[in-house]
Design a protein that fits this description.
68 residues; mainly alpha; 2 helices; transmembrane; DUF1656 domain-containing protein; cell membrane; membrane; DUF1656
């Protein structure tokens, strides 16, 4: 994985990836919220958790592919 050195502070790359995944999730929530309001998604918190894990996996995979 590795770390990112920002002015002497080491930040793990997984933390950077998780923040990026959260920002993408917040943007996706804007699209998904009307579906929840209509009742098409029964458990929104579990659904959002699954979407977050999938986004984190995709972003992590992208970082691995781009760094090789």
């Amino acid at each position: 994985m590795g770390e990112l050195n920002i002015y002497g502070v080491y930040v793990p790359m997984l933390l950077v990836q998780s923040v990026i995944a959260y920002v993408v999730l917040c943007l996706a929530m804007l699209v998904i919220d009307p579906l929840i309001a209509k009742g098409w998604i029964p458990l929104p918190s579990v659904f959002y958790l699954c979407i977050y894990v999938i986004l984190l996996w995709l972003i992590h995979w992208g970082f691995i592919v781009c760094s090789v």
